[in-house]
Design a protein that fits this description.
mainly alpha, about 180 residues
Length: about 180
């Protein structure tokens, strides 16, 4: 009959696998923190959208494949939740550190920067703001590819959770290109 491992051997195994032993309470608090950070940034990013959706944006030429506004809200709420859970899954494995933590922070900041460039800077810079926003969303797409490639080996679920976010960013970039060309 095999011996039942005691706590010391489990923690030794966890250290070998680079999986820190975290209490359930700490995991719940961390998940709440990741979600709170994501949704706080989501709310902050919505400010320039709310301020400008009835102004210049309502009068602009928009892509024929532009979805209804409620679809954007629904999609972004889901995507912000997904990236928070993905980061939490990687954090649980002790891998959200160093370069990977910087990539995670970079995607949050780029995602926050896009509505400020696209919606917020247009009244000051005109079409140039739309091209700057395209550069921002392009950088975001690159960082998301890197996150998929780095999150995936740590947690398959985390890597998969980034894919819908990447897809939506590419779709949003297509809308951005259309706006930049036709306005």
């Amino acid at each position: 009959m095999p011996a039942i491992p005691d706590d010391r051997s489990r923690s030794g195994l966890a250290a070998h696998l680079r999986v820190p032993v975290r209490s359930k309470q700490r995991q719940v608090v961390a998940l709440a923190g990741f979600l709170a950070l994501s949704y706080a940034l989501c709310m902050l990013a919505s400010v320039p959208i709310i301020l400008n959706r009835g102004g210049w944006f309502a009068d602009s030429v928009q892509a024929p494949w532009m979805p209804a506004g409620w679809m954007f809200r629904t999609a972004w709420l889901s995507l912000y939740g997904g990236i928070a859970v993905a980061a939490w899954l990687v954090w649980r494995r002790g891998a959200l550190a160093g370069r990977l933590a910087w990539m995670y922070a970079a995607q949050l900041l780029l995602n926050l920067a896009w509505p400020f460039t696209f919606f917020g800077m247009y009244p000051m810079l005109g079409v140039a703001a739309l091209w700057i926003a395209l550069a921002v969303i392009g950088a975001l797409a690159v960082v998301l590819v890197l996150l998929v490639l780095r999150f995936g080996p740590v947690s398959t679920a985390a890597g998969l959770l980034v894919l819908p976010y990447f897809s939506w960013v590419v779709f949003s970039a297509s809308l951005n290109v259309y706006s930049a060309i036709h306005n």
